[in-house]
Specification:
4 strands, two-stranded antiparallel ribbon, 19% strand, two-stranded antiparallel sheet, alpha+beta
């Protein structure tokens, strides 16, 4: 059973939670948000399982996802500054097109030192 989005209030806290329950495999009925469903996907839905989606072959070479950090990109500050000052193919400085990368900690206002700020 699973609850994908449930209100939880405790001592004035107003948050939303997800709850997932497991058994020994003998349970045959699956409940999602209190309703019977044939299956529960990893993203706590029961419709199409989008977690198994694959890139479209037709988009190979034409689709670019630039808003995701796919891995570590840690370089020394002096190299980063040099790259930002360098000109790109359009004759403009890279700083005109490279923007600071932010994540959920930044959006939530978590305090981070300048050394921790990724580009």
């Amino acid at each position: 059973m699973a609850w994908s989005d449930r209100e939880w209030s405790l001592e004035g806290a107003a948050v939303r939670i997800s709850v997932v329950g497991f058994d020994d495999g003998s349970q045959t009925e699956r409940l999602l948000d209190g309703a019977p469903v044939p299956t529960i996907n990893p993203d706590l839905t029961s419709s199409v399982d989008i977690t198994s989606a694959k890139p479209l072959r037709e988009n190979r070479g034409i689709c670019l996802r630039t808003d995701e950090k796919g891995g570590a990109f840690d370089i020394p500050d002096d190299l980063a500054q040099q790259m930002l000052r360098a000109e790109n193919a359009s004759g403009k400085p890279n700083s005109a097109v490279i923007k600071r990368w932010v994540n959920g900690m930044d959006a939530a206002g978590a305090q981070r030192s300048d050394a921790d700020q990724p580009l």
